[in-house]
Specification:
This protein has 218 residues and is α/β, with parallel strands linked by helices. It has helices at 57-74, 89-92, 110-127, 148-152, 157-172, 205-215; strands spanning 11-17, 21-29, 32-37, 43-46, 51-54, 79-81, 99-100, 103-105, 134-141, 177-182, 194-197, 200-203. The chain is built from six helices and twelve strands. The strands form four sheets. The chain has a four-stranded mixed sheet with strand order 1-2-3-6. The longest helix is centred in the first third of the chain and has 18 residues, at 57-74.
Length: 218
Amino acid sequence: MGAAGRDGADSHTALVNAGSDLRLQSNATAGQETVRIVNERFSHRNLRVGSVSRVGGPEYDGAVRAFAEAMRQVDPSIRVLSSFPSADTLRSSGGYLDYLCPHHYGCADLAAMAESFASLEQQNRQFAGNRPVRIAVTEWNTTAADWDLGRASLQTLQNALSCSRYHNLMHRHADSVEIAVRSNLIDSFGSGVVLTGPGWLYCAPTYYAQCLYARAWG
């Protein structure tokens, strides 16, 4: 894995083989480098060579410690992020993870999101020991794959309210939630808060709701 630049927001992605294929995503911002061991758990088939690579379930949890340990041997200062975790991810990590990284789609269901945060916080209490492990929600939105009216609802005031309520929930868990990345910021077939076209730009209601949180967070 090449080193990301330390001085700016340089980022890259590399595919590394250490017994099984895991995708590493590296980002450096303000001198602090974070490396995520896979964004999503998945399996895929390489049709050219007829092989299947799996980075989900027990295969992921069984490999995450070796990857994190090898990376820290190269650079002990990095912070290591998980894929979205199972109940065994932190326990299997051998104390090398800094963040557990769920994806929260369907964030309008506050009860389900609160249960997810509570579960991750419980894992931290059980398995993190004296080394603090934080939560990084690396993707969140009210929907990931709805089309038609479901997709169009992302441009409504109701969606802005749903996302604002989710922000409030994260604030209530601010002692554990350190990072949250909305999916998406721009376009993405209408799921972004900023939509663009030939000669025009439109900001969805959720954009303005998030601006209010950004400006008045203190």
